[in-house]
Design goal:
The chain has 569 residues and is α+β, with helices and mostly antiparallel strands. It contains 15 helices and 20 strands.
Length: 569
């Protein structure tokens, strides 16, 4: 095993540097997101790259700072029961918009834009990727031009889902009117160049390549942003992005640096830039397909959840199988060798804040190949023909395991493939270009939402410190399928009335400790039902050039949340 790790690290170190066709200049900030954006409308894509690229342009009413605290953004203050913004019965929240905000085209920003955005996402044919953020919303109305009232179907102890954080920014009604519902995907001009209130305006958008921006001439803060231009370059890989910032100085900021800790440390030692890390709730995990992805099935059956339960996976719902797969994995080795300071082994999909972290699954932290084999033997899942692969009811335990193209992820795949081979599970590895894998194209067979394989691996986490909306991702109504353009957040297609009931209970629970207990129960259900196998609690790792001042690394919101404050020293 040690030889394998040495080989993996060596291969990473030898990875060729891809060209970065950008150069520093005094008035331009160059940002490398090696997963290129395919759209600037995050309502139609679940990819972080789209959220981040759009965050320079369109903004929410409030967001989270680097400490995870809510801060007003386009409003005067955060509504609470104490200041009268949240009703005593917890069924309404009222936002008072600032009256000095304009869109980048000079038109006024009003409550009607907020109402329109809610209607846009809530339209049943839009296929809104962040619909869970609006969970429990009954109505959104404009009380006047600068007052928005959101009414919930029942008490909402944490009413800060809609329009808080970079997942749910406000769209301009005048621009997007007519793009609701089935028309949403076809509004290319709007989706590629939304008009916003943020510090930058889209100058040119090249899908899956680069976005160029210019400073918003109508930005609310005089003298900001400092930079007159911004370039958001996609493509390449994490190592070349890190090198462009830390060694060659060709770029100012590089995102998601999933590379060998040793390699990253050597780059930082060159003295050109600084590595920054922040932890929130992101977890790299294996998602377990609850449905049958057999390519021989008709298109309307492949990886499609059936209400009568008739299209279940042929063996991954068997407890002994997924439990053995989990037990065979050395999470600590993956975290320490492949993630370094940016990774901690975890058995939970909700690892933080600490009050929400379960300790009920910690036995997964110890790898035990022998116990995994014994578990399968006891269940009668044996290798009957001596080919090294066990069978369940005559079906070989052969899985296809996909993820995005990324050095750390491919090395994680290689390790897990070897461990699974040691327990009689055959594994085919696939890696897909990140722009495609995390894209929202309903015609592509390779998106993570389609999930046309047995296992897939990626990272996401909660938007903000309260987990209710995040845990809502696995509600039954969020099951991904053709009916929502494969944009539902319940990608494993898991059905649990018990889980849905816990979500309903949380939506009516106001005491923090009680909410935490419910969150732990939901976490444990997800992990102990074989919906996913958590691997690594991931910090967000980035780097900025030492000439850039003002970067405030944020794992609770967009990493670029305060780009208006960045300057070049």
């Amino acid at each position: 095993m040690k030889k394998l790790i040495v080989l993996l690290v060596a291969l990473m170190a030898l990875s060729p540097l891809t060209g970065v066709a950008i150069a520093q200049s005094e008035d331009t900030v160059n940002i490398l997101f090696w997963q290129a954006a395919s759209s600037l409308n995050m309502y139609l894509s679940g990819g972080t790259k789209e959220f981040e690229a759009a965050a320079l342009v369109i903004e929410p009413l409030a967001r989270y700072d680097s400490d995870g605290l809510m801060v007003p953004w386009l409003v005067h203050e955060i509504p609470t029961v104490e200041n009268g913004g949240v009703s005593e019965d917890l069924t309404t929240i009222t936002w008072n918009l600032r009256d000095d905000i304009t869109w980048s085209d000079g038109s006024p920003f009003t409550a009607h834009d907020v109402v329109f955005t809610a209607e846009y996402c809530l339209h049943p044919e839009t296929g809104c990727s962040v619909l869970s953020q609006f969970d429990g919303v009954d109505s959104v109305e404009a009380v006047d031009d600068h007052t928005v009232k959101i009414t919930f179907t029942g008490p909402k102890p944490f009413p800060y889902g809609p329009f808080v954080g970079y997942f749910t920014p406000v769209l301009q009604k005048a621009q997007f009117d007519g793009c609701q519902g089935a028309a949403a995907q076809g509004c290319t001009e709007q989706n590629f160049a939304p008009i916003g209130t943020g510090p930058f305006v889209v100058e040119e958008f090249r899908a899956n390549d680069v976005v160029t921006y210019t400073a918003n001439p109508n930005y609310r803060e005089e003298g900001k942003p400092y930079f007159s231009r911004a370039v958001f370059k996609g493509g390449g890989d994490a190592e070349s992005a890190a090198r462009a910032v830390l060694e060659t100085g060709e770029a100012d900021y590089a995102w998601n640096l999933q590379i060998s800790p040793a390699v990253l440390g050597a780059m930082e030692a060159a003295g050109q830039g600084t590595v920054v890390v922040a932890f929130a709730t992101n977890v790299e995990r294996l998602m377990i397909n609850q449905t049958n992805p057999d390519p021989m099935l008709d298109a309307d059956m492949r990886s499609v959840w059936m209400e009568d339960g008739s299209n279940g996976h042929p063996f991954l719902q068997v407890d002994a199988v997924w439990q053995a797969m989990s037990k065979a994995i050395d999470r600590d080795l993956i975290a320490s060798q492949l993630y370094g300071a940016g990774g901690i082994a975890t058995c939970n999909v909700l690892p933080g804040p600490p009050i929400y972290a379960s300790t009920n699954n910690d036995d997964c932290l110890v790898q035990d190949i022998d116990a995994a084999n014994a578990m399968l033997d006891e269940a009668g899942i044996l290798d009957s023909d001596g080919d090294g692969i066990r069978e369940y009811n005559g079906t070989p335990l052969s899985v296809t395991y996909q993820t995005s193209t990324n050095a750390v992820r491919q090395n994680t795949q290689a390790l897990i493939k070897q461990w699974w081979a040691e327990i009689g599970i055959d594994t085919e590895l696939r890696n897909i270009d990140a722009a495609v894998f995390f894209g929202g194209d309903p015609a592509s067979p390779d998106t993570y939402g389609k999930f046309y394989t047995d296992i897939e691996m990626y990272t996401n986490g909660s938007n903000g410190t309260d987990p209710e909306t995040y845990m809502g991702n696995w509600r039954t109504t969020e099951i991904s399928g053709p009916w929502n353009n494969w944009l539902g957040s319940n990608v494993p297609r898991w059905y649990s009335e018990e889980y849905d009931a816990l979500l309903d209970e949380m939506s009516m629970t106001g005491v923090l400790e009680d909410r935490a207990a419910l969150a732990i129960q939901m976490n444990d259900l997800l992990v102990q039902s074989g919906v996913m196998i958590p691997l690594v609690y991931r910090g967000s790792v980035a780097a900025h050039h030492n000439s850039i001042s003002g970067v405030d690394m944020n794992a609770w919101d967009s990493e670029l949340w305060n780009i208006a404050e960045w300057t070049r020293m």
